[in-house]
Design goal:
148 residues; 2 domains; 9 helices; 67% helix
Length: 148
């Protein structure tokens, strides 16, 4: 959560703690705690981003950082990043390959399946699909190795 705190502090920019508290509807003490790595709910994170008038890309980056923090050890194996405009075409292609995705899912370990299902339940992850592609590629590679 330290990484998220640093990003929140950077996003606050030149605003004083008092100004940040006023803009976000949070107390000065809460702002200080969040910037030092205190856990935060996604709802609060989005309110703070809105109060700081964050650009959509900055908000996406905050959400991805938050998600990585909550994924714990799984985050080391997952590539959780904002989905850029170039990657949106890949998301369209992925939707067309449902049966391949189901087959790939069955080749994942239980831990990988759990991580995937947990991530897929979060609406904000729909904009951050890269880690799902990584899991798909790993499963496809593993399935190819098993069939050799």
């Amino acid at each position: 959560m330290k990484e998220l705190g640093n990003k929140l502090k950077a996003l606050r920019g030149r605003l004083s703690i008092e100004q940040a508290a006023s803009a976000t509807g949070r107390s000065r003490e809460t702002i200080r705690k969040l910037e030092t790595g205190l856990n935060i709910s996604l709802k609060s994170l989005k309110k703070i981003a809105k109060g700081y008038k964050a650009e959509p890309e900055d908000e996406d980056d905050l959400v991805c950082t938050w998600l990585r923090g909550h994924a714990g050890d799984h985050a080391k194996r997952l590539r959780i990043e904002p989905l850029s405009a170039k990657r949106s075409r890949l998301a369209d292609v992925a939707r067309d390959k449902t049966s391949a995705m189901i087959e790939a899912f069955s080749g994942l370990t239980t831990k990988e399946q759990d991580a995937l299902l947990l991530a897929a339940q979060r609406p904000e992850v729909l904009r951050s699909v890269r880690h799902l592609h990584q899991l798909y590629d790993a499963a496809r590679s593993r399935n190819q190795n098993n069939s050799d």
